[in-house]
Design a protein that fits this description.
Length: 287
């Protein structure tokens, strides 16, 4: 089985619609794909309606969190999307995205960059607006060559010249909320140092003690020594280890299935979940 547990659609900051994403996942030879848009489940219905036969969808979201001033992302799988406390927290994060993006536009204008809110809103479309949309605007204007080049201290990285904070969930609270909604939690790309400051290993151990289920190890932002170190840490503190592409369509260079999760780990994630269950494809006829 080929299993990719971290992808994004136009419901947040990917460039594939949810329907396109599942079709591309099937074309890439995946057996299982998780749709984990930022702080939203809005793309799930479309993905399910278009799900090709032979592909199983894991519903999820990537939750924006912050610990000791460090931004981090928590992948949540197979939770009940209507559980009120977790829904309320996701809405708080989403509602803060627009004023945050407007604040980044204002900072860029102060730096002499002619980006406009209308441009960013056009790029975001119906998705949850975020830094990748602002980064894409910078690419359109020729300020940086790629989206990744916008995530530096010069521009949009944590603490960068145009960075603006947003509401982010305490990860211990995120774990509690996801578990109460029957879901499973995996810390996304925990050692992606190029994105900014990262959470310490001691903090990861504390999160594990609080109920964190796993960490994403095989990821494009982790080199091989980092993966070896993370596997050792996971073994020490009893965490599952996953692998994922973090596919964003054309916004990143990765492709579906670039990194994958071991089938036994996937089976354990499914076993632990009680809020929702993976959905096998019905050839795009699922209601």
């Amino acid at each position: 089985m080929r299993i990719d547990l971290h992808t994004h659609s136009t419901a947040s900051d990917g460039t594939d619609t949810p329907a396109e994403l599942v079709r591309n996942a099937a074309a890439a030879g995946l057996d299982v794909v998780a749709l984990t848009d930022h702080d939203t489940t809005r793309g799930h219905a479309e993905a399910l309606a278009a799900l090709p036969e032979g592909l199983t969808l894991v519903t999820g979201a990537e939750l924006s969190c912050r610990l000791d001033g460090v931004s981090m992302h928590m992948l949540a799988y197979l939770f009940d999307p209507d559980e009120p406390d977790l829904l309320r927290e996701r809405e708080l994060v989403r509602d803060d995205r627009v004023p945050r993006a407007r604040g980044m536009v204002a900072k860029l204008n102060e730096l002499g960059v002619g980006v406009t809110w209308e441009q960013v809103a056009r790029i975001a479309g119906d998705g949850s607006v975020g830094r990748p949309h602002v980064a894409t605007a910078l690419v359109e204007l020729g300020v940086v060559p790629t989206v990744s080049d916008a995530f530096t201290k010069d521009w949009l990285a944590d603490g960068g010249r145009a960075y603006v904070d947003k509401h982010e969930t305490d990860p211990f609270e995120a774990i509690r909320l996801v578990k109460a909604a029957g879901g499973v939690t995996v810390f996304a790309h925990p050692a992606a140092a190029e994105r900014g400051r990262t959470v310490t290993e001691s903090a990861i151990a504390e999160l594990a003690a609080a109920g964190l289920d796993g960490i994403e190890v095989d990821h494009m932002d982790h080199d091989e020594p980092t993966r070896v170190r993370l596997r050792g840490l996971a073994a020490e503190v009893g965490l599952l280890t996953t692998g994922s592409s973090d596919y964003h369509g054309s916004r990143k260079t990765c492709v579906p299935g670039e990194y994958t999760t071991d089938p036994e780990v996937y089976g354990e994630i499914v076993r632990r979940a009680t809020g929702a269950f993976p959905v096998p494809g019905a050839g795009g006829r699922h209601a």
